[in-house]
Design brief:
The structure is a single chain. By secondary structure, the chain is α+β, with helices and mostly antiparallel strands. It folds into two domains: 57 residues, 2,3-Dihydroxybiphenyl 1,2-Dioxygenase, domain 1, CATH 3.10.180; 54 residues, Signal recognition particle alu RNA binding heterodimer, srp9/1. The chain is built from two helices and eight strands. It has an eight-stranded mixed sheet, with helices on one face. The longest helix is centred in the first third of the chain and has 12 residues.
């Protein structure tokens, strides 16, 4: 099943913001800190069908107010991630090609022709 979730980049305030959202929404929070500097590599907030993800990390280019939200597209198959990535990159910019990741899935990032950044992922293990 394909799903789209917001992914917010906080530029150093991820822990603070996600903790606030956790308390505000009564959700479960998981955070993966970076090895240095206390920044958060990835955070996920879950409650029922809600999934809000965040990070202190920023892709290419500097963080600027307004460019802090990307769309995370969880794909249902390897064929889907490759097809959607190809289509979304038409007229856009490939930030990171679809590649196998250390966590066992596929992941790629593209900024479409409208300036929206999409983070596409497929994890075969999650489907089992």
């Amino acid at each position: 099943m394909m799903q789209i979730h917001p992914y917010i980049h906080f530029n150093g305030r991820c822990r603070e913001a996600m903790t606030f959202y956790k308390e505000s929404l009564g959700a479960e929070l998981e955070m993966a800190p970076a090895e240095e500097g206390g920044r958060i590599v990835h955070a996920s907030l879950v409650k029922d069908d809600l999934l809000l993800m965040g990070s202190d990390m920023q892709g290419p280019g500097a963080f600027a107010r307004g460019n802090g939200i990307s769309l995370s597209l969880s794909c249902g198959s390897e064929a889907d991630i490759r097809l959607f990535f190809r289509r979304l990159s038409t007229g856009g910019t490939v930030v990171s090609a679809v590649m196998a990741q250390q966590w066992g899935g596929l992941f790629g990032v593209v900024t479409d022709r409208f300036g929206i950044t999409w983070m596409l992922s497929y994890d075969a293990q999650a489907r089992l």
